[in-house]
Predict the structure.
Amino acid sequence: MVSDVGSYRTADQRPATHRVFPEDLRVQLLPSGMTTPPRKLIIAIDGPAGAGKSTIASRLARKLGYINLESGAMYRALALKAIEWDTSFDDGPALVKLAHNSRIQIEPSLGGNRVLLDSRDVSQRVREPDVTEAASRVSVHPEVRQWMVARQQEMGAGGGVVMEGRDIGTKVFPRADVKIFLDADPVVREQRRLQQQNVRGAAAHAVASELRERDRRDRTRATSPLVPASDALILDSTQLSEDEVLQKVEAWVQSRLAP
Ligand code: DC
């Protein structure tokens, strides 16, 4: 059964009529008796911190049987290396040299992306506040971004991937099959982050102002600032539950597959 349920706004305002298939998309992507394997899509999910990208990307990837790659984890791994090697976060050429001498691996797993730096599991460490702050600063440098984008393109080239970040639909895969820009009201994003991290009082103030500062840096940097791709579905999750967001994202995926 296929049902029409309306249209979404894309960044360039073109209404995109879409069709929604019920339940698990995998069933629709792999009809029984099909001999040619279905094309493995590249799905880009971009947006600011706290908009819910990681949860949605991971749930969508699981449903489709795709891998989920968090591009931010790579910036975090490089930032950690810069901390450990005492490299200035403001020195682009030194940072890219460091990147060339590093082995950064992102391994998708059910519990999220495992992050390996020079074969060491740093999955927990890269989520800590000092690395979060450093990643934001490291990511402003054009030469660092160029290195990261090339690695990310290699990782996603085969398709069957949901890649999330800030510039996936605009720079990493400008021809991605499906692009989504997930946003939410800044106050709501802050609240979600505070709940996730279970912080209150003065610590909550620090987390909130750090989030605002990262937002500002992501949106205003000269190279690849955070902006929706012109053909992305812009989804504001402020008033939506996680399940509702996922439903809309799935419908958008189907609309891009429909002939
Ligand atoms: O998504 P995240 O919070 O783990 O990302 C960490 C930092 O990396 C964030 O401050 C912005 C930066 N980043 C980026 O510039 N481009 C990406 N594609 C992903 C992350």
Residues 201-220 form the longest helix (20 residues).
